[in-house]
């Protein structure tokens, strides 16, 4: 015991730094204490030679200097002169270097990079190159990651390219700087002081994105304000685009469908009206005159009150193609969202996007992508994959993940989302036989798509640490890494992130990585086990609200989703119910329809199941449900313990931030467990199993809680 204590204290003093506000994200570039490693890196990097004069190449050089100075110490350059590190794009490299690279360039795409080492003219060479300067910058960040994560750089032969073309963040940021579903402060876009005041944070944002391969940003909320398209705001957008451009990042805007009326003075926004068509053509031209590499428009139409083509008896194809025509001359794209549900179809909200969009397959213009949320309802802790994936072979489908945690404890709960993304990407749609995973739909390989894309709804705000909780920086990071390569493993990404953000010490990495990998399961357990969904409180979605039944639209009420009654609980979406399973390939539908083959985690998503139904483990549904809620709480407790044990390895500031947030998460996990079990018990009429802690309050108490100023609305 004493020995342990002494070790703890010694470690505390050796390893700890005290203040780190997390602003530097995963680009900490901490000094490498291991001398052997440091001299290996020093020997290889003491002579940097850049080729090319673009801003991007200058940024690459600056980044290398910053990173190497930080990790190797400022005097590192004098270490050796028989090595050289060369970087520049293909057209700027000398012939003897190109000869050494052979036909490597045929193996990468325009954004890809090569990192390779060889011996030439008495010198060890490391060459970082690509077809474009953006590719070189990605290569430089990857090279730095090698050092950050303390991998050997003795022999390098890396060729890597993004598998998805459009890799964007979607900011749900409003012009008044509030952020819809944002839990990390206000918007980082200071619209009022733009375009003249360029907050250095814009550069840091671009740099962080470039380091993980994100190449686009949609600046404003999908619940759009047409003012963003006025000259006054386009000035500001242009200023941001200029900051982002050298980092390989394009700007996109959301287009409010009724903008021709609101800011164009027209009487209609009918996509067939000549003046409307003309207005969008001119507006688009105006944008491209300012921003020649503008990416295009993201549109939420005829969804949750947003205007759209259906207001004029036109359809999604009419609307999307009209905007696509305006963008076509400039190679811009339309990202048309499929998140639609109508109050007039009360049978099953989960079916609506598929029913509305799949019949249009093949009718969209070539520069339209349909952007689909990962699951058929709305970013729940667990959802089966969206049935549209794989069902529209002639249309590029973009994935939309939510990085911000609208339904997952907002920014207080430490949840590692790439685990959830990985599960969705690996889901098998069976649309072209076994192995037709969602990842293959998204990267275009399943249907040979030319245009591919992925979007993540950002969790970034103006909090000092960007994401409100240092642990949630991993979700921004992991999203970027998966957008680049949707086949990466969430666990490997977690390891890279931990090493780059906190420490390379195994005694830190192993337990924390293990903890991160359990978090998505934990949140499902303490909020919505066995396929329960959308039982959050109304509006802000903060905390439990399975009892809510008084909202005007049926599908806004949690009772619509869980359908608890004295017989059982769950939404029957099989052929005896809403038939939603029929929207999946037969193999998948069969698995979901059958109580014997469906996984426990999807059970109540697809079936109404009796409270005393015996599940695979032999226990009743009710007992299992109660035990799962308890397990979720226990998992958070375990997370707290893990975190307390790694204290010596983390600076005081981030250690304490995360510790306090985990305590909130624990308190809220218990709140979820108690409120949900008390509520469902009214229907099951069955006692709680012995090992489940007794609720601390009454159901009345939980129902009386209200949070009028919960953030993110
Ligand atoms: O998840 C729901 C949110 C809305 C959001 C909408 C959407 C931007 O509650 O806040 O609106 O989805 O994705 O359009």
What fraction strand? Answer: 5-15%
**Unreliable segments of 5+ consecutive residues:** none
Q: What is the tally of beta strands?
A: 15
Derived structural class: alpha/beta
Q: What is the average of the pLDDT values?
A: 96
Bound molecules: 4-O-methyl-beta-D-glucopyranuronic acid
| Strand ordering within the main sheet | 6-7-8-9-10-11-12-13
End-to-end C-alpha gap: 50 Å
Number of helices: 22
What gross morphology would you assign? Answer: globular
Radius of gyration: 26 Å
What does the largest sheet look like? 8 strands, parallel, barrel
**What percent of residues adopt helix (DSSP H or I)?**
25-40%
Question: How do you describe this structure in short?
Answer:
This protein has helices at residues 2-15, 35-45, 55-72, 95-101, 133-148, 200-212, 231-244, 259-262, 274-290, 316-327, 352-357, 418-425, 438-442, 473-484, 490-501, 506-527, 558-562, 586-593, 603-606, 621-645, 652-684, 699-704, and strands at residues 48-51, 83-88, 113-120, 123-129, 157-160, 166-170, 216-218, 250-254, 296-299, 333-337, 368-373, 397-402, 453-457, 568-569, 609-610. It is 38% helix and 10% strand.
Describe the fold and architecture.
- This protein is an alpha/beta fold.
- The protein has helices at residues 2-15, 35-45, 55-72, 95-101, 133-148, 200-212, 231-244, 259-262, 274-290, 316-327, 352-357, 418-425, 438-442, 473-484, 490-501, 506-527, 558-562, 586-593, 603-606, 621-645, 652-684, 699-704, and strands spanning 48-51, 83-88, 113-120, 123-129, 157-160, 166-170, 216-218, 250-254, 296-299, 333-337, 368-373, 397-402, 453-457, 568-569, 609-610.
- The strands form three sheets. It has an eight-stranded parallel beta barrel with strand order 6-7-8-9-10-11-12-13.
- Strand 3 (113-120) and strand 4 form a beta hairpin.
- Helix 12 packs antiparallel against helix 15 (490-501) and helix 20 runs antiparallel to helix 21 (652-684).
- It is globular, with a radius of gyration of 26 Å.
- The chain starts with a helix and ends in a 9-residue tail after the last helix.
- The protein binds 4-O-methyl-beta-D-glucopyranuronic acid.
- 4-O-methyl-beta-D-glucopyranuronic acid (GCW) binds next to loops.
């Amino acid at each position: 015991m004493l020995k342990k204590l002494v070790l703890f204290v010694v470690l505390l003093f050796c390893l700890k730094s005290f203040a780190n506000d997390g602003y530097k994200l995963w680009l900490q570039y901490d000094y490498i204490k291991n001398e052997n490693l440091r001299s290996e890196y020093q020997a290889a990097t003491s002579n940097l030679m850049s080729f090319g004069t673009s801003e991007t190449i200058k940024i690459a050089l600056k980044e290398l200097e910053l990173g190497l100075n930080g990790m190797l110490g400022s005097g590192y350059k004098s270490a050796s002169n028989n090595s050289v590190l060369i970087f520049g794009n293909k057209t700027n490299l000398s012939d003897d270097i190109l000869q050494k690279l052979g036909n490597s360039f045929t193996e990468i795409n325009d954004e890809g990079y090569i990192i390779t080492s060889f011996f030439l003219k008495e010198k060890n060479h490391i060459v970082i190159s690509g077809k474009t300067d953006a590719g070189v910058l990605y290569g430089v960040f990857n090279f730095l990651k090698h050092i950050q994560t303390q991998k050997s750089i003795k022999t390098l032969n890396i060729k890597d390219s993004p598998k998805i073309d459009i890799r964007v963040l979607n900011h749900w940021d409003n012009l008044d700087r509030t952020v819809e579903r944002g839990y990390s402060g206000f918007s980082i876009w200071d619209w009022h002081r733009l375009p003249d005041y360029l907050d250095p944070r814009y550069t840091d944002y671009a740099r962080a994105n470039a380091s993980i391969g994100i190449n686009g940003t949609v600046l404003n909320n999908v619940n759009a304000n047409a003012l963003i398209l006025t000259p006054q705001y386009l000035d500001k957008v242009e200023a941001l685009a200029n900051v982002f451009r050298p980092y390989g990042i394009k700007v996109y805007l959301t287009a409010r469908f009724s903008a021709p009326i609101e800011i164009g003075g027209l009487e209609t926004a009918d996509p067939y009206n000549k003046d409307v068509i003309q207005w969008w053509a001119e507006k688009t031209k105006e944008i491209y005159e300012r921003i020649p590499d503008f990416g295009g428009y993201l549109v939420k139409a005829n969804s949750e009150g947003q205007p759209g083509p259906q207001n004029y008896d036109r359809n999604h194809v009419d609307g999307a193609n009209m905007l696509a025509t305006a963008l076509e001359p400039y190679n811009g794209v339309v990202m048309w969202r499929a998140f639609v549900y109508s109050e007039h179809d009360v049978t099953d909200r989960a079916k609506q996007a598929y029913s509305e969009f799949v019949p249009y397959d093949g009718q969209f213009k070539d520069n339209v992508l349909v952007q689909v949320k990962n699951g058929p309802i709305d970013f729940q802790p667990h959802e089966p994959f969206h049935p549209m994936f794989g069902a529209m072979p002639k249309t590029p489908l973009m994935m939309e993940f939510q990085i911000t945690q609208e339904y997952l404890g907002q920014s207080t709960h430490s949840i590692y989302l790439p685990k959830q993304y990985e599960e969705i990407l690996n889901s098998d749609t069976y649309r072209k036989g076994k192995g037709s995973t969602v990842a293959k739909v998204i990267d275009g390989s399943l249907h040979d798509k030319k245009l591919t894309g992925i979007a993540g709804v950002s969790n970034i705000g103006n909090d000092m640490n960007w994401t409100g909780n240092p642990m949630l920086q991993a979700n921004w990071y992991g999203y970027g890494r998966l957008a680049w390569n949707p086949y990466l493993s969430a666990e490997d990404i977690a390891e890279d992130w931990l090493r780059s953000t906190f420490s390379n010490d195994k005694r830190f990495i192993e337990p924390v990585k293990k903890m991160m990998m359990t978090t998505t399961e934990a949140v499902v357990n303490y909020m919505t086990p066995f396929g329960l969904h959308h039982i959050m409180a109304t509006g802000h979605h903060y905390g439990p609200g399975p009892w809510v039944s008084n909202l005007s639209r049926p599908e806004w009420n949690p009772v619509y989703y869980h359908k608890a009654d004295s017989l059982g609980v769950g939404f029957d979406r099989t052929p005896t119910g809403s038939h939603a399973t029929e929207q999946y390939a037969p193999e998948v539908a069969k698995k979901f329809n059958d109580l014997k083959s469906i996984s426990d985690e999807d059970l109540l998503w697809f079936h109404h199941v009796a409270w005393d139904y015996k599940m695979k483990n032999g226990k009743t549904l009710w007992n299992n449900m109660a035990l799962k809620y308890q397990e979720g709480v226990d998992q958070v407790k375990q997370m707290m313990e893990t975190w307390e044990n790694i204290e010596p390895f983390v600076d005081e500031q981030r250690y304490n931030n995360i510790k306090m947030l985990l305590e909130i998460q624990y308190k809220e996990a218990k709140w979820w467990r108690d409120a949900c079990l008390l509520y469902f018990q009214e229907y099951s009429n069955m006692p709680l199993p012995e090992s489940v802690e007794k609720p601390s309050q009454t159901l009345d108490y939980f129902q009386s809680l209200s949070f009028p100023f919960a953030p993110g609305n």
